[in-house]
Write a structure and sequence with these properties.
The protein is α+β, with helices and mostly antiparallel strands and 230 residues long. It folds into two domains: 64 residues, no CATH class; 161 residues, Aminopeptidase. Helix content is 17%, strand content 27%. The strands form two sheets. The chain has an eight-stranded mixed β-sheet with strand order 1-4-5-6-7-8-10-9, sandwiched between helices. Strands 2-3 form a two-stranded antiparallel ribbon. β7, α3 and β8 form a beta-alpha-beta unit. The longest helix has 15 residues.
């Protein structure tokens, strides 16, 4: 099977589950100019124009492919995280033409004050915050902290438009959930809205169940609450 893109070996919803390479930390995304093809078969590594049969080939970067690493947030990431948060994230916003390089912002977004000091509002608050780094560019983020019900409340999940549709969001959520379990949480909680149908479908695909809705007279949308046992 020929394909122009791949999953990480530990993607819980990809074709690598149970494969000997489970636990790999890298995800290979296609180089510019390659078109999306079919999903990879287990044990096949695709490159632009050719494919390799050896699973061991995924242990090193392939020429022209970008290696993605999900790591814990660092203070130096702040200005770029703010820029990533500003990118469109409502609806079908995948757009490979958006440059990966983001212009850092001078100040945090006023609508999301918890991003002003992530160390205090997430990490020191008993949660954690992660970013996805691809070749030095931040292309995704997600965090969580305890809410009043003692759940791990997942917040600020963002994926750069240029790398959407490659299961990066699922990988970020997997890292968040595993870390929440390490910290003693047994349930994750999050919200999205009816004007984000793709987000609703995404969370459902990860096993989240709708647990409630909220609407107000001045809203033209409905807030939807989801939870998942970890």
């Amino acid at each position: 099977m020929r394909s122009w893109w791949g999953y990480a070996a530990d993607d819980p919803v990809g074709p690598w589950q149970g494969h000997p390479l489970a636990g790999a930390t890298s995800l290979f995304l296609p180089p510019t100019g390659c078109s999306t093809g079919e999903r990879l078969s287990v044990g096949v590594v695709a490159t632009c124009g050719s494919w390799l049969e050896s699973p061991r080939a995924r242990a090193v970067p392939l020429r022209g492919w970008n290696v993605l690493t999900i790591r814990r947030y660092e203070a130096a990431d702040a200005a770029t995280v703010w820029a990533l948060n500003r990118l469109p994230h409502l609806g079908a916003t995948g757009d490979p033409s958006v440059p990966l390089q983001l212009e850092p912002l001078d100040s945090p977004p006023s609508q999301f004050p918890d991003l002003a000091d992530i160390d205090s509002t997430f990490i020191a608050a008993g949660g954690d915050f992660f970013v996805a780094d691809m070749g030095g560019h931040l292309v995704g983020m997600a965090g969580f902290r305890a809410n009043e019900a003692g759940q791990a409340q997942v917040l600020r999940v963002r994926v750069h438009p240029a790398v959407r549709r490659h299961r990066l969001g699922a990988r970020l959520m997997g890292v968040v959930e595993r870390r929440a379990v390490e910290l003693g949480f047994t349930e994750a909680f999050l919200d999205t809205s009816t004007h984000q149908p793709e987000a609703m479908a995404f969370y459902r695909s990860l096993g989240y169940q709708e647990v409630g809705r909220e609407t107000r007279p001045d809203w033209d949308w409905t807030l939807v609450y989801f939870a998942k046992q970890l």
